[in-house]
Amino acid sequence: MTKVLFAAAEAAPFYKTGGLGDVSLALPKALTAAGATVRIVLPYYEQLFPEQYRDQVADVTHFWVQVGDHAQYCGIKTLTLAGLQYYLIDNQDYFGREGLYGYWDDGERFAFFQMAICEMMERVAFIPDVLHLNDWHTAFIPVLLAEKYYWIEAYRAIKTVLTIHNLQFQGIYNPIVLDSLFRIGTQTFTDDGIAFYDQVNFLKGGINFANAVTTVSPSYAQEIQTVAFGERLDGVLRANQGKLQGILNGIDTTLYDPETDPALPANFSVKALAGRATDKAALQKQVGLPVADVPVFAVVSRLTKQKGMDVLLDSLNDFLMTQKAQLIVLGTGEPALEQAFKTYQAAYPKQVAAQIKFDVNLAQLIYAGSDCFVMPSAFEPCGLSQMMAMRYGSLPLVHLVGGLKDTVTPYNRFTGAGTGFGFDDFQPAVLRKMMTQVCQVYHDTPKAWRQLQQQAMRQDFGWTTSAGTYLQLYQDIMS
Ligand code: ADP
To answer: Which member of 82, 308, 383, 423 has the greatest number of CB atoms within 10 A?
Structure first.
């Protein structure tokens, strides 16, 4: 049985800011179901840790991790939830804060986290066959295993997989950190090592040092090898092409099931869609829009340019003036974008609802009650929301890139095929035209609409296939 330690900076149901949090629950669960022994290691963000799990957390051990000149306390806690065992790395100075990321000392916080993981494995006597790392917060571990912990014999057989969920965040720091945090020399500070324009790049280190690198959709795996999507690492990724592959994320289809979802006023299924109308009315009411039979467009997203929110905003005025449609936006993000949606709400109070917050229950109601889920991302490693939307019968309208291209089949009005709508040309005018077309399909051909909904809901977005692909990858690098 393959032993896996899955390391991430966030995981549902404890803490989640985006797709990484979802994957860090669903993938270990699917790997376990497929026969692997998986444990998960996370930071213990005490202030954010949900109340209902607190009394299940037990202390395992503690020790000191040398961060530069300072010995830092490192507590190891554990809990088991739904058959999965978690290790939580505790240091109040680093992780006892109000948020997960975005602090001036994130480099030091995650340097500590990564060294703590390395030092923990021996102490808790869980030496995995595969250490599965995720994004820049844990990407430096393969470098540490090679440069700092090479003397620990038990670790020599450990293989590493690095999954890139978002290439945009890389963990770039002054090379001084090699000594001031990690206390390793400069021998890896080369172009084919960890050096990146005179800086240290954690993610690049992981790409060069891990045994295998994956990203979360096949299309994104190709795109990041180009200058347009490579975030200045395209050369490094091309050089590591042989160990790079795209494995599509899934969603937790037990948790996210319109037939049983407790967040919904009315449950429904592909065969009995009636409850959807109730959910749509409840949604309109809850966000303060008139309960009317007009197409409801929706966004559940970080409000950023990555998610194409600037392009959406630029397309809105003409669209709202000419179409009787509604738009519900749930999200937080860049202040200027948040403000712009609020301005639209003030200008079009009967058509736009801007819900500037993070609200998991409202998100579910939006998936279940909206008609068209707008996701015009500039780039999209995989994207989970569009899958969630399809599962709940909201037809995605997407920019056909990355995982969006791999999961949404654009409507073909001649054959009736499709699971949503898509466009290639990343322009506000194109998006507006598409939204207008969506309104036409909605009003003029309700039968075609219903068929698209059913096709979308019937897609298999479960984890089974992808978990099998990961297990195969583990086998390949172990042999
Ligand atoms: P990313 O990880 O790039 O932010 P994904 O589509 O992969 O995007 O995952 C986003 C996840 O976060 C989805 O589960 C989505 O429902 C959720 N989400 C995003 N914004 C909000 C919000 N404001 N309230 C509730 N859930 C949100």
So the answer is: 383
